[in-house]
Write a structure and sequence with these properties.
Pfam families: DUF1569. The protein has about 160 residues and is mainly α. Helix content is about 55%, strand content about 5%.
Amino acid sequence: MQDKKTTVLNDLLSQIEQKIPLKDKSNPTISKANVGWQLDHTLKVINRVCESLKRSNPNDYKKDFNVMRRVLLTLCYIPRGRVKAPKIVRSPDMVSIAQLQDQLNEARIQVNSIESLDKNAHFKHFIFGTLPKAKTLRFLEMHTKHHLKIVKDIMKS
C-alpha cells in the first residue's frame, strides 16, 4: 500500500505525463524556458533526490533548524525567479518526448522505491539543509507543483 506522500507524488507524475505532448510550448513573459525544460528539470530533480535518499546513511542524519525550510515547506510554495537550478538538474535546450517519457518512467520507479526507506534517510539541499525522508518528499511535492504551475501559466498564453 502506498503512503500518502508517495501517492501525491505519483499523482503529480501523472500530471507531468499529460503535459509531455506540449513540450515545445513557450511564453517568454512567464519563463525563459519552455514546457519541455520545466518537465525535464522537474523529473531530473525527482530522480536525483530519490537516488540521494537511497544512498544516504540513516545513522548519519542530524536534525537541524532552518527558518526558510520551515516556512516554505509549510506553505508548499517556492517563489519564482529567486534561485538558479544546480548544473546536475539543469535541462538541455532541446528535450525529446522519448527522453521525458524515459525520465518519467524512472521517476515512478524511484518514488515507489523510497517508500520503504528508513525515516532518517536524508537528502542535503543547498538552501534547505538536510531533509529527512518525510521532508524530502514534501520538498519534491513543493518543487513539482512549482514547475507545474509555471507550465500551467505558459499554457494560458
